[in-house]
């Protein structure tokens, strides 16, 4: 009963956060006006007064931005929770095996050298050219890490973690090298993108990431039973009939798909996949059926509120959302490290 109440609270918080974010900004909209504009699209007269400017801002600017924050926040959080279960490490996150860093490398490559190396890529992919490159980088990272970690037909989790460290280091070095070749304008674009932002949100971007993010958000909770068994140990999970190799492959593929799509449109947004699952685990425990769904709801609310802060705290300047999440997540990460240190007994 308490768990049901907790989920109701998370849903209410998400609705409140979305309503607050949609209505707050240079042009204010009340909850009644927001409801009226939604009802008007359905052909229902709710009796709320709103003008054309408010309607345009709501449908063209605010709503797609909030929906993108919901999708990305839920994707990063549920991916973090799944990877923490897969690696049996509460400090794991989607960037652990190089997904984010590799995706950022291919994005920087396209921003700086895309025109020289792939002159016609914009005519082929249009506005989705950068998204395709970023997703390809995430997929490349997961393939490299997965192939290296294969040992006698099985995936060695320890080797996978070390391979992820190596991929992160290599991707960081390549990104730095490519940045040296950038012009001032390109350098500004790269720097702003790597700090994370939802400023470019529109309906095309939302539609572009929707299938990838939903695949991750819906697909990972369906693996909750297997992740629960896997938390007992790989051998015990296999004895319970869990196809452990298939589980590792599917979890990593879904995380790469969702995180890659998120990075493509919003840049690198850190700590969401680390902080949220850990907090939820402390509140409701490690059972993955509840943990994954609660993480998705909480991550969506967190990113909606972080984006609201990023675009309103220093108006008219917009602070990159990655800075906001780092300022919240960094101190909490240090707290987790200190907490784990105190719990560890040195023999």
From TrEMBL:
Keyword Oxidoreductase attributed: no
GO MF terms held by the record:
transmembrane transporter activity
Please name the Pfam families in this protein's record.
Answer: FecCD
How is it placed in the membrane, per its record? Answer: Multi-pass membrane protein
Per its UniProt record, what CDD domains does this chain match?
TM_ABC_iron-siderophores_like (cd06550)
Q: Which residues form a coiled coil?
A: none
Q: Name the Gene Ontology biological process terms.
A: siderophore-iron import into cell
Show the stretches that span the lipid bilayer.
Answer: 63-83, 95-113, 125-146, 158-182, 203-224, 250-279, 319-338
Gene Ontology CC: plasma membrane
Q: Does the keyword Hydrolase apply?
A: no
Q: State where it is primarily located.
A: membrane
Q: Where in the cell is it found?
A: Cell membrane
Q: List the keywords (alphabetical).
A: Cell membrane, Membrane, Transmembrane, Transmembrane helix, Transport
Q: Family, per the entry?
A: Belongs to the binding-protein-dependent transport system permease family. FecCD subfamily.
Mind telling me which PANTHER family this protein's record contains?
A: ABC TRANSPORTER PERMEASE PROTEIN MJ0876-RELATED (PTHR30472:SF25), FERRIC ENTEROBACTIN TRANSPORT SYSTEM PERMEASE PROTEIN (PTHR30472)
**What is the protein name for this chain?**
Iron complex transport system permease protein
The lineage, from the top, is: Bacteria, Pseudomonadati, Bacteroidota, Chitinophagia, Chitinophagales
